[in-house]
Amino acid sequence: MEVITSKSNSLCVHLRKLASSRSYREETGEFLCDSPKLLEEAEAWGAAVMAVLYTDGAALPWNPEGLFPRVVKVSESVMRSVSPMETPQGVVFSCRSSSYGPPERLEPDVQGRMRYLVLDGVQDPGNVGTILRTADAFGATVILLPGCADLNNPKTLRAGMGVHFRSAIYRCTLPELTALLKEAGLPLYGAALREDTEDVRAVDLRRCAMAVGSEGRGLSAAVLAACDRTVRIPMDKTCESLNAASAASVLLWEAARGEY
């Protein structure tokens, strides 16, 4: 069994850089996850796990020895120096990253659904991860436009609870998105207010793409211009708006209503 006791070990330095630097993650093609739950999800869905660090007290669902290319036992102090969490759960690991590039075309999922959620400038990694998890629950595929939080940020991964390992996620530019939607014959509906805005309950969301904007400014002018129509979520007049994750959850639930 390999054991690391030094915080300056090259593997520890590598993992810390994966946790803290988006550019380093993109350069190396790897990302860092923490928690036994995420490791279990990664193993279950065949993710390319590169290295696992764990402590004696880790709540591992099984013995990782022999399952992954490199498995290392570390002290609690080393784990604290590597884990991005304030209270580490005793496991961190690195994975090979997916490309997240745009698909050649938009096609129905295994259940015949063509439902997409487009994120425009959603910068909070916790919100992005929560949205990914909710979309996975309600049968939608997420497409991120430029300006969104890094999909491989540890906070995004933690909030996603393993969705990265089991669901298709795409990143593309607005021109790429509009071309994909046009080819597939899918309308784009934006969560925003303008003259043609309709109550979301009155719009057929079974076959479409729905766009949600950033926490501060909403949808960009370019995305709004690309929308076929806009929709609003009815709410009490005392509330001005919902945050991105909450708005996405309501739209996804409304789109999937009647399917479950």
Descriptive account of the structure:
This protein is an alpha/beta fold. The protein is built from 10 helices and 12 strands. The strands form 2 sheets. Strands 8-7-6-11-9-12-10 form a 7-stranded parallel β-sheet. Strands 1-4-3-5-2 form a 5-stranded mixed β-sheet, with helices on both faces. Helix 5 (125-137) runs parallel beside helix 6. The longest helix has 13 residues, at 125-137. The radius of gyration is 20 Å and the shape is elongated. The termini are far apart.
Number of strands: 12
Uncertain parts = none
Counted by DSSP, the helix tally is: 10
The span between the termini is 47 Å
General form: elongated
Fraction of residues in β-strands? 15-25%
- Main sheet characteristics: 7 strands, parallel
| Strand neighbour order, sheet with most strands | 8-7-6-11-9-12-10
Give me the Rg, rounded: 20 Å
Oligomer: single chain
Tell me, rounded to a whole number, the average pLDDT. Answer: 93
Residue share in helix: 25-40%
Alpha-beta classification: alpha/beta
Q: What's the SSE pattern?
A: EHHEHEEHEEHEHHEHEEEHEH
